Amino acid sequence: MIVAFSVSPLGVGEDVGEYVADAVRVVRESGLPNRTDAMFTSIEGDWDEVMDVVKRAVAAVEARAGRVSLVLKADIRPGVTDGLTSKVATVERHLAGGERGA
């Protein structure tokens, strides 16, 4: 499964990068495949391990902020691995070839 999530503190002002870095640090230290962009961090693994990492990432932000917002989206496909890379590769292949779907 791939989970894309965003965790942000509320009530701490506009500059939340330091708090978000605490959450991303938890994800990177997990050893699971992950990718962070401007809006979300995506992580890949089985249900229990991914949800544990998300829970710990939220706790890292919550430790410094009394209120936390979590947005989460999951792609649940048992047996599929390397989705973080393969899904993007498929799109890039279509872009390179100029292929268009119906």
UniProtKB/TrEMBL annotation:
Domain Thiamine-binding protein: 3-92
InterPro entries in UniProt: MTH1187/YkoF-like, Thiamine_BP, UPF0045_domain
Pfam families: Thiamine_BP
Similarity field: Belongs to the UPF0045 family.
Name recorded for this polypeptide: MTH1187 family thiamine-binding protein
Organism: Streptomyces lunalinharesii
